Amino acid sequence: MYSLRHGFVTEALYANVPIVTVAKSCGTSVQMIEATYAHAMAERDVEVWSALGTQLRVVGAET
Predict the structure, then answer these.
(1) Nearest-angstrom CA–CA distance, 21 and 30
(2) Total-model pTM
(3) How far is 32 from 38, CA to CA, in rounded Å?
(4) Among positive and negative, which fits the CA dihedral 42, 43, 44, 49?
(5) Rounded distance, CA 28 to CA 47, Å?
(6) Which of 22, 18, 21 is nearest to 9 (CA)?
């Protein structure tokens, strides 16, 4: 059962499901999800920011 839950949480976080929704779906707290799955959230953050990096511009830096 743990493997199924772990897989669900990991996939949900990678799919950008809000952490509150993931926690409620698993009957646990946001704090537990953050503590246990910080690595998955950090990996996803890197992917998202890398993808956005080419599309972002600094406001006020127009020349």
Answers:
(1) 9
(2) 0.64
(3) 10
(4) positive
(5) 26
(6) 22
Q: Which sign does the torsion angle of CA 55, 14, 42, 19 carry? A: positive
d(CA 3, CA 42): 21
CA gap 48, 9 in Å, rounded:
18
Q: Are 14 and 45 in contact (CB under 8 A)?
A: no
What DSSP designation does 18 have? -
Q: What is the pLDDT of residues 5-33, one digit of tens each?
A: 889 999 998 888 999 999 999 999 999 99
